[in-house]
Give the backbone structure.
Amino acid sequence: MHNNTFQQPTDSELEVLTILWKYGTSTVRFINDKLNESRKVGYTTTLKIMQIMFEKKLLIREQEGKSHKYTPAIEENAIQDRLINKILDSAFGGSASSLVMQTLGNHKASSAELDEIRKLIDDLGKK
C-alpha cells in the first residue's frame, strides 16, 4: 500500500475497501459474497466497481490462475484522515472540538472507549 495520491472513493468503493482492509487480498467473488451479507449486489456490479477502482489506482490487481486477486492500494488511515478532514471542514467549520462533541453526543461510547479518549487527550496535552 503505497499510493499517496488517490481519488476519493465513492460509497460503494469504500465498502469494497473496508472488506479488503478487514480480510486482506481477495477475489471479486469473495468481495461480492461479503457485500451480499448486508444487501443484494450482483456479481457483475461488484466486478465493474472493482475494475473502476483498479483504473483509479485504488486497488492492485494480480492474476492468480484464472481469477484476479485484489489488494487495496491505499491504507485505511489515509482514507479515514481524508474523510475526517472533509467532514471537519464542510460540516464543522474546521472545529475539531465541535466534531468530537457531536460525535460523542450521538454515539454512546463504552467506558473502554472513554478511557482510550482520555488517554489520547492526556497524551496530546503532554506534547
Notes: Residues 15 and 78 are 15 Å apart (CA to CA). The radius of gyration is 18 Å. The mean pLDDT is 88. The first strand starts at residue 59 and ends at 64.
